Amino acid sequence: MPSVKARILNLYLNWAMKRHPLHLMEPEKLTAGAEAAAPKKPPAGVSIEKIDGDVSGEWHRSENAENGNLILYLHGGGYYFGSPKTYRALTFALAQECKADVFSLHYRMAPKHPFPAAVDDAFAAYLWLLDQGHDAGRIVLAGDSAGGGLGLALMLSIRDHGLPKPAGAILYSPWTDLAVTGASISSNEKSDAMFRRIHIEEGAKKYLAGADPTAPLASPLYADFKDQPPILIFTSDSEILFSDSTRLHDRLKDDGVSTELIIEEGLAHIWPAFIGRLPEAAVSLSQSADFARKCFSAKVER
After folding, report:
1. What is the CATH class of 4-301?
2. pLDDT tens, 265-278?
3. Which residues lie below 8 Å from residue 260, measured CB to CB, with a gap of 6+?
4. Which of the residues are catalytic?
């Protein structure tokens, strides 16, 4: 059963998000609202360095980072809103818990920049990190919702271009099926604290802009995942994208990928982003750190 704090948060999100026509709101307004609620300063031991160029984003550097450990974070927001700022609470915590530096990417978004702009930007960021001398075997990808799907698309692009693979990936409530065919889209529409079916369907249209919704780089659920590194997936049984995670997990297993699926009960979409507010978020961050350290240590053993 979710904690009292989680149930209160669900009620708030239902009021603040679910009842609104999110798909009709300006992305700039949604992003500004999310950024206003984000931490302005990092915690002790973490610093911020903003990058603005061909690759844009924020470095969240941790004083306790070890051995070149690095997390490339891809934020969510349906591919049309959000920024590195909106996920600072989570990326700050990842830096500290995983003993790694985090680069949170600012990628182009719909509707101005539809698919595959976000994939192109994520791939460019990975190349940029490699060109800076970072070891692929010490990079863990992480992302939430649309950012989780983007992380999977990046993994496919890395493999298909013959580049060295990252050490693993951590996905929080990933959006993997822009064809919107999962059973939970309907069965969990009432229980989801944040979204309605129309939010997902119209959000997919914004990003796809007429592209095939089953194209693997847009909807990784339809991809061949053979020869991919370990993947950790978090999902809640009450969220509308629940089926996107469970079906992904099954597909990864079928393709021989080492995958772990953690299912929580009755929590909001990407609840780890509420670190500092929910006890469940702290547990998930600890599990993420355990997984990341295993991925990093696998490089040492090799």
Report:
1. alpha beta
2. 999 999 999 999 99
3. 230, 231, 232, 233, 291
4. 145, 239, 269
